[in-house]
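Researcher: Please predict.
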Amino acid sequence: IALQQQGKHAEAVDYLQRWVKVAPKDCDAQINLGNSLLNLGRGAEAATAYAAALAIRPTAPDVLLLKAMAEQQTGNMQQAEQSVRHMLAIHPASPEGLFTLGTILSAQGRIDESIQVYREALRYRPTMVEPMVNLASLLQNRRQREEAISLYKEVLRLQPGMPEALLNLSTMEYEDGADSEQTRQRFLQVLERLPDHGETLNNLANVHMNLNQLDEAETYVRRRLAIPPESPSAHGTAAALFMLDGQWEEGWQHFEWRWLRDELPVPLRDFGKPEWRGEDIRDKTILIHHEQGLG
């Protein structure tokens, strides 16, 4: 337990595994073992430890919830949903259980159900920011902007400076025509807490680009490109910036990432012939086709 409190979960696992071999019926030890494994991202092993604890305390709601979280970490959403619903059958008014169920449903693309469950969690605990920000994000994606903005503002009232709420609210207000400098300052607040937050770096690049501050925009673009994972959106910003600045070769290289965007204006088509890469085509025919316009 002392090692867990120090964040030394790998060492804690070693001691706890040795202990549960000696005392397999020690429910608290099994739970602690599961907690450290969960912190280490070893969800499958954590779920096994929680299952051992549940064999001793079959209706322990906190353990059922932890087991669901471990199963969710492994991507076993069906089993995770079963575990959390078992927990909610015992404690139907648990905001934590409802929040976890909401995240599991959302991960399966069951957005209507997820929205309903997040609302239910907030009915039992109106000041719980986790379901509030997740609900706002789902509503934002559904373009229910007014309610999403209201929820983000409430999150920031309850937890000032929460990065996700600050970022999403600032982005929405900027899209609605908010002052560029005010938006820039809010994005900088996010970077103070999360210096390598890719979406924020990309947004700052766009703000500076719209202000025609190309040197500042390039600084943020290059910071974003240096951070994994690669993002078609970030490469799209880089393409626009470098072309705007006359850096054509680098701009076109980034522009190739457009084909990996989620929403393409025109789908990538295969004509059964190789793409022209700039080689001599004096004795060949080239097909020029529509992609993003006819200009």
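Model: The chain has a mean pLDDT of 93.
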